[in-house]
């Protein structure tokens, strides 16, 4: 392939979704940030280094009394605004393009917190209301 020498009509996807099995004894809230655990099931984001960011949960899924996979959760992929960490791990505009680490199902931080947090996406923007994170 060669580098462009003219404009290109590059295809793009807007806000895609996927359905993922929910972990046993788990409740996911609509609009919350979720992740996939080591068993491949959906859980809310927590301060854990073993999770893989999965995006935003589309609507409430209550699998509190169910086994793993009894229910699925619809995950939205795209760019969403989350709360910025209020600790010394505050994300700034200088961090745009870097990894965002999950603190809980609505908060992101700048670092892995001493290997206690997982990457949930890439920092796309920072404003006065929070941090925009892209989930793929």
Task: Provide the descriptors you would attach to this structure in a database record.
136 residues, mainly beta, five-stranded antiparallel sheet
How would you characterize the overall build of this protein?
It is a single chain. This protein is an all-beta fold. It is built from no helices and twelve strands. The chain has a five-stranded antiparallel beta sheet with strand order 1-7-5-3-4, with no helix packed on it. A five-stranded mixed barrel has the order 8-10-9-11-12. The radius of gyration is 16 Å and the shape is globular.
Q: Summarize the helix and strand pattern as letters.
A: EEEEEEEEEEEE
Distance between the termini: 25 Å
Shape call:
globular
Largest sheet: 5 strands, antiparallel
Tell me the strand order in the biggest sheet: 1-7-5-3-4
Strand content is: 35-45%
| Average pLDDT figure | 95
Ranges where pLDDT stays below 50 over 5 or more residues in a row are: none
Structure annotation, total helices: 0
Give the % helix: under 10%
Short note summarizing the structure:
The protein is mostly beta strands and 136 residues long. It has strands spanning 17-21, 26-28, 33-36, 42-44, 52-57, 61-63, 72-76, 78-84, 99-104, 107-109, 119-127, 130-135. The model has no long low-confidence stretch (mean pLDDT 95).
SSE blueprint:
Layout: E1 17-21, E2 26-28, E3 33-36, E4 42-44, E5 52-57, E6 61-63, E7 72-76, E8 78-84, E9 99-104, E10 107-109, E11 119-127, E12 130-135
Parallel strand pairs: 8-10
Antiparallel strand pairs: 1-7, 2-6, 3-4, 3-5, 5-7, 8-12, 9-10, 9-11, 11-12
């Amino acid at each position: 392939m060669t580098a462009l020498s003219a404009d290109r009509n590059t295809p793009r996807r807007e806000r895609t979704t996927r359905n993922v099995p929910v972990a046993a004894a788990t409740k996911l809230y609509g609009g919350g940030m979720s992740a996939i655990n080591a068993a491949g099931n959906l859980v809310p984001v927590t301060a854990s280094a073993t999770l893989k960011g999965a995006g935003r949960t589309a609507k409430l899924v209550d699998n509190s009394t169910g086994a793993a996979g009894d229910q699925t959760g619809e995950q939205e992929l795209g760019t969403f605004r989350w709360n910025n960490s209020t600790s010394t791990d505050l994300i700034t505009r200088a961090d745009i393009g870097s990894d965002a680490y999950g603190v809980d199902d609505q908060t992101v931080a700048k670092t892995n917190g001493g290997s206690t947090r997982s990457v949930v996406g890439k920092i796309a923007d920072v404003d006065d209301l929070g941090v925009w994170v892209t989930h793929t």
